[in-house]
Write a structure and sequence with these properties.
With 389 residues, the protein is an alpha/beta fold. The chain folds into two domains: 190 residues, Response regulator (Rossmann fold, 3-Layer(aba) Sandwich); 146 residues, 3-Layer(aba) Sandwich (Rossmann fold). 44% of the residues lie in helices and 21% in strands. The strands form three sheets. It has a seven-stranded mixed sheet with strand order 7-6-8-9-10-14-15, with helices on both faces. Strand 14 and strand 15 form a beta hairpin. Helix 3 packs parallel to helix 4, helix 7 crosses helix 8 and helix 12 packs across helix 13. The protein starts with a helix and ends in a 17-residue tail after the last strand.
């Protein structure tokens, strides 16, 4: 019995010694996500979440283990502020990806600067977000100025419009988009014959659209999220509004939900930051994986969210979770993503702003077709507007 006990103790001692020499399991890097998972912008928030989930898988495949802490801003700036504070102080994340809307992102960016936590924004496009001189805010997304210029340039290349009407929601995104469109249109010699900001979520746009129709614009430029985009086009059809072209500044016009409304979406142009037709590294593979996983086509919202999370995850791993080191690496780095090459630069009053290549899609028979620039187009644009079915 004594000999058995001695052998047993020896085995246990050897086992303990072996465990002591095992390398410690790497602690996952904790990262935050602020997104509109409920509320009126949840349909697009879902696309962002899907893109981030695929990025999480891709990071793991590269040996980078991340622990994501998700916060739902519900589309409300005040909720976004609380979410950022919680992530920065209670959860002690290394960095944050978010948010979706420009209104929420504007407030979250201020909080990120206050708590000195790096924020990588995937898709909010209000110009002023990266014009505050923030040290901790980095934007992958293009700006509303980019959204406007690509659409207007495309329209001028297709026909000879002389006038433009601008209709936008009265949010941060809408106001910035309308301001950018007006400035660029005038620069290009277009006459702005109508400009109005409507209350987001209004139940009826007929009176506004009647006034717009009365100005007889050659092109109509709209800045709206999904629900408003659909209602605006339904009521445009009712009133027989038929310009040379309807131009949608991304957002609601770039969604499958809008495209599926075939009676009102056919022929509408939308600016976008990504399509499955681009030649950027991994873009086509991402499009296939996304379709198989979620049974739907990927949008630019999903692609920019994937890119933002990959950049933050890889850089946070190099920084070993240290916020200051992470900020420095984001500022100095160059990144090859499914959303194109990304570099956070200071130019034209912007700080840490990526120079993103924009594209134009047109909805043809319920599907988004890449039509501009011609070098990557998957189809030809239908011009002028084909009329209502």
């Amino acid at each position: 019995m004594h000999r058995f006990a001695t052998v047993t103790r020896a085995i246990l001692f050897a086992a303990a010694a072996l465990l002591a020499w095992q390398p410690a399991q790497a602690v996952p890097i904790k990262l935050g996500v602020i997104n509109s998972m409920t509320g009126p912008e949840a349909p697009i928030g879902e696309s962002l979440a899907n893109g981030i989930q695929l990025a999480e898988q891709d990071l793991k495949a590269k040996g980078i283990d991340v622990q994501l802490v998700w916060e739902d801003d519900t589309g409300k700036p005040q909720v976004g502020i609380s979410a950022l504070e919680k992530l920065a102080t209670r959860d002690n994340v290394a960095g944050v990806v978010g948010a979706y809307t420009s209104a929420v992102t504007s407030t979250v960016a201020r909080s990120a600067e206050r708590f000195k936590v790096p924020l990588v924004n995937p898709v909010a496009s209000k110009e002023d977000i990266t014009r505050q001189g923030y040290k901790y805010v980095f934007r992958v997304s293009a700006t509303t100025g980019d959204y406007a210029s690509i659409l207007i340039d495309m329209a001028l290349a297709q026909g000879k419009p002389k006038s433009i009407a601008i209709l936008s929601e009265n949010t941060d995104f809408g106001t910035s988009g309308a301001k950018s469109a007006k400035s660029y249109a005038e620069k290009k010699g277009l006459k702005v014959v109508f400009e109005e900001a409507y209350a987001k979520g209004s139940p009826d746009f007929r009176s506004t659209l009647v006034n717009l129709k009365g100005t007889n614009p050659d092109i109509v430029f709209m800045v709206s999220y999904v629900a408003d985009a659909i209602l605006l086009m339904r009521q445009s059809r009712e009133l027989g509004l038929s310009p040379m072209a309807f131009l949608g500044a991304g957002a609601g016009f770039a969604t499958a939900q809008f495209a599926q409304e075939k009676e009102i979406s056919n022929g509408v142009f939308s600016s976008t930051q990504w399509t499955r037709d681009v030649a950027w590294t991994g873009a086509k593979d991402f499009a296939e994986r996304y379709r198989k996983r979620f049974n739907k086509e990927a949008t630019y919202h999903a692609a920019t969210a994937h890119a933002a999370m990959m950049i933050l995850g890889e850089t946070a791993a190099k920084a070993k979770g240290d916020r200051e080191k992470l900020r420095e690496l984001l500022q100095s780095g160059s990144f090859d993503t499914i959303d194109g090459p990304v570099k956070f630069e200071d130019y034209d009053g912007y700080t840490h702003q990526n120079r993103h290549q924009m594209l134009v899609e047109q909805i043809q028979n319920g599907k988004h077709m890449t039509v501009w620039p011609t070098s990557i187009a998957s189809g030809k644009p239908i011009w002028p507007f084909p009329g209502w079915k």
